[in-house]
Amino acid sequence: MAEPRRALAQMDDARISVGNARFLIIEAPYYEDIAAQLRAGAEAALTRAQARFDVVSVPGALEIPIALAIALDRAPALYQGAIALGCIIRGETYHFEIVANESARALTQLVVERKLPFGNGILTVETETQALERASVESGDKGGDAARAALALYRFSQEFGQVVEQAQIQAQRPVLTSGAR
Fold first, then answer.
1. Sheet hosting strand 22-27, strand order edge to edge
2. Is 138 a catalytic residue?
3. Is 114 among the domain residues?
4. How confident is the model at residue 180 (pLDDT cuts 50, 70, 90)?
5. Is residue 179 a part of any domain in this protein?
6. Where along the chain is the active site annotated?
7. Looking at the domain assignment, is residue 178 inside a domain?
């Protein structure tokens, strides 16, 4: 089996330091031990990047997009990014597909519409063993990966904003040309 690129896990957190930016972690601790590992990884990554963060819990993965929408509507300027954490383990019914697909769809739609730096740390797995391996800070660190994704997008938005400002300044300067031919 091919090994995934671990670029996010190997990213130097100091390189993506975000000063006082504030992030919202929304967790669905349906599986408490898995959620605790995801949260530990996310909090560690945010702390290393010198970000501030708040954590809220909701019952399940389907409630995460709704909670994020409420937070953004009630306090639109409070958060510069968000991280979703949770776990969906396949059972014997179609419910797995509904929860996995609809939570991902709703989150993607929301963060794209709002242009919000975001990291999705909602695991979708076949077994609890898979979930524990992926959530563990020592092995998979998917909570940390989700936080690093949000941090990287935040830095991108800041840096791209500076590029745009520089381009606008350049566009306003008069163009000097050499003499007429």
1. 52-57, 22-27, 81-89, 118-125
2. no
3. yes
4. low
5. no
6. 95 (proton donor)
7. no
**Domain enclosing residue 138, as ranges:** 19-172
Mean pLDDT over residues 35-50, rounded? 97
Q: How many domains does the chain have?
A: 1
Instruction: Tell me how far the alpha carbon of residue 19 is from its chain's centroid.
Output: 17
Confidence category of residue 15, pLDDT binned at 50, 70, 90: low
Q: pLDDT averaged over the chain?
A: 90
pLDDT of residue 10 exceeding 60, the answer is no
In a domain, 2, yes or no: no
Active-site hit among 6, 95, 98, 159: 95
CATH of the domain at 33: 3.40.50.960
Residue keyed to tokens 């019914």: 93
3-state percent breakdown (helix, strand, coil) of the chain, nearest 5: 50, 15, 35
